[in-house]
Amino acid sequence: MSPASAIPDKTIAGRDYIFATLLGMLIAGFHYFNGYPLARSVLLQSFNWAFDFDSSRFVKAWTVPDVDVSDVHPVSFVARHALSLAIRPLGLGLNMVIGDSYLAVMALTALCAGCVTVIAYILAAQLCENRFDRFLMAAAYSFSAQPLMLGINPEVYGFALAGIGLHMVMVVNRRGLPPSVTGWSVVGFVINAGVTVTNAVLNIVASAVLAWRRVSLWTWITIEFKTGIFAAIGLALVVVPLAALFEPSVLADAPSAPKRVWWIININRAEPASLLAVIAALVPFGFVAPEFTMVDLPKDGHSMLDFREFRYGLGGAISIAAWIVAMIVGAYVSLRDEGLRRILGVVLIWTSLNILLHWYWQFRGSVYLYGAHTSFPLFILLIVAYAGALRKYSPIITRVVATATLSIAALNNVSLYRQMIDYIVSQPPVPEQMRTPRK
């Protein structure tokens, strides 16, 4: 990067990784402590208590030993989330340590949230010089709505959030360079494609933006082809042995996977939410949580918590206004720097693709559950806005204002986080015949 860059490259010391890990452990402990009562709640007994998450499927899928998990992990699910199988050994290990499959799945979820915090710190460290600023940005992200809610809801979306964040770390780190076939680029492709297959599009988008006017079209296609081949081989080497071990029927059913995925996608399509509702769910709601909307689910026999309406109290209104300003400032600062312009391009293209996809396809108006796909890329704009303000204005005043504003947002989000926990814990047990299979 040029010395005249809007935000020059930063150095990340070994001490930063230690600090990030400690912060991640604190966040994981926070979620495990708060999520502990949920282990015996309806959250892990049946589907769709919050945001249309299917949290109860992951008790058997990830932490119950000596069972075939094909009933909760059918071929249509594995085709879309292949690396979910790779999470099972981690869950089984936690079950051995804790001695309870329900607590183990909550611990696994909390640890994933801790890893997200570590990634957020490393991402902030690439754009902020001072360790306090890196801590502030990482803490702000950890207590933003999307990571906070995923910290106590077992789901593949938590791992998708971590995978996308890790890839954005690589993209920001290489923003001044054209794409190339590296070990990290292959690993990033494996993670994103494996956790949620459509997330591999992010890798292609990021590579295309970094390649624009730097390498020829043929060179870029060759790079992507090689990366895709190596990633496919790597993914197969991970998933096939695990499938053979944990659910052999998936391998036998593999030829039917495209047909079953197509059926699942089309059978679940419903009357879509409006474009504005999709934008709200995937953009601002991921950072500042609105008031809950209670969605009646007659077939499930209960109501579901979701974020669907632009309703905020005073603290939330202040936070969302500040967040919108920060996103605009972050975009403006990015336009002044060649490398950051490319990052802005990745963020805008990827966010737009997700908005269009989920405007076209969604399940009964539930959109917030897909917010993990846009959360980390948009977080970069917040970091850029903050780093730009530190360079232009008084660092002390900037830090005081940012800390106060982000604290208000965190209090708003934690209040709703606790509301969700209290609501779910207060529900009567689900009848045995209606529960998600565990054995």
Question: Brief description of this entry?
Answer:
This protein has 439 residues and is mostly helical. 65% of the residues lie in helices and 2% in strands.
Describe this structure in words.
The chain is mostly helical. Helix content is 65%, strand content 2%. The chain contains 18 helices and 2 strands. Strand 1 and strand 2 (302-306) form a beta hairpin. The mean pLDDT is 88.
Topology (elements, then pairings):
Blueprint: H1 14-35, H2 57-62, H3 75-80, H4 84-98, H5 101-125, H6 131-142, H7 145-150, H8 156-173, H9 183-195, H10 200-211, H11 217-246, H12 248-253, H13 257-267, H14 275-282, E1 293-297, E2 302-306, H15 314-335, H16 338-360, H17 372-392, H18 395-425
Antiparallel strand pairs: 1-2
Helix pairs in contact: 1-5, 1-6, 4-5, 5-6, 5-8, 8-9, 8-17, 9-10, 9-11, 10-16, 14-16, 15-16, 15-17, 15-18, 16-17, 17-18
Distinctive features:
2% strand; globular; 439 residues; 18 helices; single chain
Question: What is the SS-derived class?
Answer: mainly alpha
Low-confidence stretches: none
Kindly report the spatial arrangement of strands forming the biggest sheet.
Answer: 1-2
Count of individual beta strands: 2
| DSSP helix fraction | 55-70%
Task: Characterize the biggest β-sheet.
Answer: 2 strands, antiparallel
From the N-terminal CA to the C-terminal CA, the straight-line distance is: 56 Å
Q: Helix-strand pattern, N to C?
A: HHHHHHHHHHHHHHEEHHHH
Radius of gyration: 21 Å
What percentage of amino acids are in beta strands?
A: under 5%
Alpha plus pi helix count: 18
Q: What is the arithmetic mean of pLDDT?
A: 88
Describe the global form.
globular
